[in-house]
Write a structure and sequence with these properties.
Lyase, Ornithine Decarboxylase, Chain A, domain 1; 13 helices; binds pyridoxal-5'-phosphate; 8-stranded parallel barrel; 9-stranded mixed sheet; TIM Barrel
Length: 410
């Protein structure tokens, strides 16, 4: 699909997703874990457009949600509700009751107080459910097993020492089946080691819980699997699976995965148009029509996104999309947005082919935490989202109008 044609029809800036790519990423994860009973719960907060959720649900994905709003999205997308896990440290009673009524698969539990509240709400509403106690991976099981001093809790998860006490106290509660242990490493980085090490740390806990009669049958390994923001820098789904599947198989554990960016990041680009070029000191700035309100990752995380003009023939695109690329016929520029903030940039000191006013520019790997973090800052209408399927495309979210900007203020 020629993306310039999309820009012609819907304007810029615009997010464009490839259906084939995110379904391929999902399939690779599904294939990698066939040897054990695995539920893949795509993390909606990475990219929650309902049309994309529908495609993923149809392809067999469950969902990881972090709010009542995401539950609503999942339901509207026709999700299999039994394949929904609900994470987050601050679930409100209203959100919990909505999820209980929906019959979701599992609540990820971040604290004792939260578990107590879930049990209470189940009882008052005549519901049963499952919990996945989130055990904090930063704490080594061996190191803390015999520690007598107090162990600290973090905002996320529960330390291992406390886990056994929580099972002793709550496992027999009659409403919430505590059969899952959960861990989410945040961002797993560029190797499989943190995942393998954590599974190794958690298995003795699983055995200890089982030896006391607590039936643990599932490990939820969370998300955070690498996505290729640069080319070929992160493990594949098969690499991760090779590390953890044998361990889980030997321990007779089922698996839940909560991938977000590894499915959707590289399925999305943002197209933006070059407005102006200006020099200041020895720097050249390319000012484009997308801003940090459309894509905040460079500003928020100093994230690298490969940037390339669409008019430069596809066979001139370098094989490797990497930071620090040196090539002939390029110019070192800062690519910046129109917003009144110094942090409104997409690339600094980046070598890209010379851009002129009107040139279309593709910002790569923006599918995850791109549109979901976009805002109306500077009263900029939110840009549209487009889904490409083969050689066809359709708008899956319209561009906002000025009227949309104020319609909730009436
Ligand atoms: C954000 C999040 C994910 C997804 O993380 P990715 O890095 O996008 O894979 C999965 N599980 C939980 C609990 C999360 O908070």
């Amino acid at each position: 699909m020629d993306v310039a044609e999309i820009a012609d029809q819907v304007g810029t800036p615009v997010y464009i997703y490839s259906r084939a790519t995110f379904l391929d990423h999902l399939k690779k994860i599904q294939d990698a874990y066939v040897d054990i009973d695995t539920t893949i719960c795509y993390s909606i907060k990475a990219c929650g457009n309902i049309h994309i959720l529908k495609e993923l649900a149809e392809a067999g994905s469950g969902f990881d949600i972090v709010s009542g709003g995401e539950l609503y999205r999942a339901r509207q997308a026709g999700a299999d509700l039994s394949k929904i896990v609900f994470a987050g440290v601050g679930k409100t009673d209203r959100e919990i009751i909505e999820a209980l009524d929906a019959g979701i698969g599992c609540f990820n539990i971040e604290s004792e107080a939260e578990l107590e509240n879930l049990i209470k709400l189940c009882k008052t509403h005549g519901k049963t459910t499952k919990s996945a106690l989130r055990v904090n991976p930063d704490i080594s099981y061996d190191a803390h097993k015999h520690t007598t001093t107090g162990v600290k809790e973090t905002k996320f998860g529960i330390d291992i020492e406390r886990t056994m006490k929580i099972y002793d106290r709550y496992a027999d509660n009659g409403a919430v089946e505590m059969s899952v242990i959960h861990v989410h490493l945040g961002s797993g980085g560029k190797t499989i080691d943190p995942y393998v090490n954590y599974v190794k740390k958690i298995l003795p806990l699983v055995e200890e819980l089982r030896s006391k009669g607590y039936a643990i049958d599932t490990l939820d390994l969370g998300g955070g699997y690498g996505a290729d923001y640069e080319t070929a820098t992160v493990p594949s789904a098969a690499d991760y699976a090779a590390g953890v599947v044998p361990l889980l198989k030997a321990a007779n554990l089922k698996l839940i995965l909560e991938p977000g960016k590894s499915i959707i990041a590289n399925a999305g680009i943002m197209l933006t148009s070059t407005l102006f070029k200006k020099s200041s000191g020895n720097k050249t700035f390319v000012i484009v029509d997308a801003g940090m309100n459309d894509l905040i990752r460079p500003c928020l995380y100093e994230a690298f996104h490969f940037i390339w003009p669409t008019r430069v023939s596809a066979n001139l695109v370098p094989e490797k999309r990497i930071n620090g690329l040196e090539m002939e016929n390029t110019e070192k520029v800062d690519v910046v947005g129109p917003i009144c903030e110094g942090t409104d940039y997409f690339a600094k000191n980046r070598a890209i082919p010379k851009l002129e006013r009107g040139d279309l520019v593709a910002v790569f790997s923006v599918g995850a935490y791109g549109y979901t973090m976009a805002s109306n800052y500077n009263a900029r209408p939110m840009c549209p989202e487009v889904l490409v399927d083969g050689d066809q495309f359709r708008v899956i979210r319209k561009r906002q109008t000025y009227e949309d900007l104020i319609k909730m203020e009436k």
